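[DERIVE STRUCTURE TOKENS]
===
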Amino acid sequence: MGLVHEIDYGTPASKAERHVTLTVDGFTVTVPEGTSIMRASMEAGIQIPKLCATDMVDAFGSCRLCLVEIEGRAGTPSSCTTPVAPGMVVHTQTGRLKDIRKGVMELYISDHPLDCLTCSANGDCELQDMAGAVGLRDVRYGYEGENHVFAKNRADASTNFNWMPKDESNPYFTYDPSKCIVCSRCVRACEEVQGTFALTIEGRGFGSRVSPGMHQPFLESECVSCGACVQACPTATLTEKSVIEIGQPEHSVVTTCAYCGVGCSFKAEMRGEELVRMVPWKDGKANRGHSCVKGRFAYGYSTHKDRIIRPMIREKISDPWREVSWEEAFSHIASEFRRIQYQYGRGAVGGITSSRCTNEETYLVQKLIRQGFGNNNVDTCARVCHSPTGYGLGQTYGTSAGTQDFDSVEESDVIMVIGANPSAAHPVFASRMKKRIRQGAKLIVLDPRVTETVNSVHAKADYHLPLKPGTNVAVVTALAHVIVTEGLFDEAFIRERCDWSEFEDWASFVAEERNSPEVIGPLAGVDPEVIRGAARLYATGGNGAIYYGLGVTEHSQGSTTVMAIANLAMATGNIGRRGVGVNPLRGQNNVQGSCDMGSFPHELPGYRHISGDAVRDIYEALWGVKLDNEPGLRIPNMLDAAVEGTFKGIYIQGEDILQSDPDTKHVSAGLAAMECVVVHDLFLNETANYAHVFLPGSTFLEKDGTFTNAERRINRVRKVMSPKNGLADWEVTQKLAQAMGLAWSYSHPSQIMDEIAATTPSFANVSYDFLDRMGSVQWPCNEKAPEGTPIMHVGGFVRGKGKFIRTEYVPTDERTGPRFPLLLTTGRILSQYNVGAQTRRTANVIWHDEDVLEIHPHDAEQRGIRGGDYVKLASRSGETTLRAEITEKVAPGVVYTTFHHPDTQANVITTDYSDWATNCPEYKVTAVQVSPSNGPTRWQEEYEELSKRSRRIEGHLEAAE
């Protein structure tokens, strides 16, 4: 198998269209204009020695190893910083160059520890490689340079003030200053790739060091632990602790991250079945060789002691769990579901698919419910985050997905971010976006908080609209008001691509005075001139791209806001080409895929309504059953029906609805009323408190399949180790289906994808062989688009004419008042992911070990609250306690928290209000009161007791966490 090796060309590729031909060591090579000599040589298969150069960052020219000679030119220029020229004749190996390189290497080695045999980078050290490449055999200057090799002088034991100890503060990597060659690759990666600017070079000469921040430990600095510096380091200066502990990997497998919707590609580097490290894959088209702290380092949950690896059953939720065989578990579930359907009717059972699982696994769950249960009671966790995207974009454009690939942002001139904080929730995309902003693009942010995206280093927002939670529709319509009334719309685009009469109707609506910034501004808490300035910039600033997140969708008017955003892009002609578009930043790794696979109760795969006879005919012929033509129950409807006594059994794959869904008390009441709750997951999560059967799941490292990211990119997930529970998730669902009498006989997930492709037009050309050949592909991928569709709606909209829709602002029913005067909104933090089941079981807790409540100083002072105090957060739905953080990131009247920790359970506060079109919960607007607290609420105490009791396992001394 071996390691997957990637060529390092030394410098980034040139995007020039003109080409240049030159000669390198007698070989002719043609490359784009602006290419460096180093890269051109590598294109010809000639490797020039280098240390400071790597193709992930711009050329620097400091190491002086890559010198070349050019006929007709004096001197020995560095090949990394010298561009090619027509007819240039380059020599990379001459006697003169060899002598210079050997002399340079002598200086490096004279100031470097020679503990190569015991060094963690032995066999993976570029300094070691280059010493061999230049033929270095001796060092005239000795081997005890006064840099920082030894703490004390060997001769007289005096203290060496240039020496620095290792920095072990970061949980994932170590910094050894003694091995630093001051190549600046880490500094440049932090600046150019990540955009954090956390590193610098301090000192001069032999006293030069890499320094995080102002000479701080890594953990205390602004470092976000993305791993770019570690990846760039050519020595053992910055090294993963896992490599130090385990050793160098011996084989690797390319797979896809299972965290957010960016869908980064990684090389899982292994020793046998032990994962040594995750290295970002440069050919990954979503991440282009970059990563964040979660995907790069936070994979330890896969081997955590809390993980459940054997099926378990209990009769009542008050009983301890009993470990059973897979066969007994499947037989029990099948028997119970048959009993429930016989006793209560066919519609008394259903299931929930997971946005964390693969397309193939999600497809099988909805197939099981439709073919095996005989109903359409299937829903997905995408219901509670991005279902308004599907509805809103489907209505306006004709397809339920974003319009661009991530590369497109590199050609944007104006970037509008609405209700999203990419720096925390989609950090790899954020790095690419911020790089474009540093190059001159303008940034507009609509968010109630001053987020990291608003105030990034060297990428600050030109306009920040700190709108009041719940006023999205009003503010976006006000932006449209300015564009229409000031004549900034693109009439030619609208007449060609949209229905002009519908535009006129929409334009007359947005032009009404009630939609003007002067009226909406005071309502939303935004300066009207800021609204006007943002609108003018978006409409006239060149290529305008909109990126949005859960701050748009998780509202009672989520679908309306998505349509308002679509209107804005159409009105300005910012759709259908590179650098523009409407782009939802999906929260979980396979939100897009779970929707694509038919996980909604009203849609079969490919967003085709269940009432369509022709669509049902396809599946009825294939599956051999008659499908119900009526939509089934959504998640909220299932819970309502359970409380009413008509819904009694549910199969939940990879979703923790008790922690992630709104109005926790209602969710718990619905689960408690059911007679057979089956949870299929990695850990005994919060929902498992109410489960009767637990089926152990498998991680993304343990199975084959595909994920579909926010840009519609279908990426391969490849098995890198055996499932610890014995079965991949798709096998669990298949065996359950077989226990229920279905004749499923898949032997590999590729066969499931073949069935998806055969029945879903947008996936028609997709197969594992095709994905292995292409790397990845964006749907639609069929006869019309044989290699996929990076940009949607290029020649016209999928629905034909783009549809302008009036977006009337309707205030949420959730209102503040004397009892609950503040507005709570929620979000995520960089180090944690969703409900935290995975990231809380990694060293990421060092950055975020509890949810805290952000509150403005004015609101805190009124309530006698100081920073770090415990406070009670109460709403009409419930109450909880957590610590307060006093900050001006939030406006007066607004408080904010994350939802990563179950002991806080922020969703005990949120209400059951939801989007009018899709039932997506209104997480982002909850009226609350905050007051000092002496300890946990009664609900927290009762919940903790329930959790401890429900996690008891027979034969185990301690309850599972």
Summary: The chain has a mean pLDDT of 92. Residues 326-344 form the longest helix (19 residues).
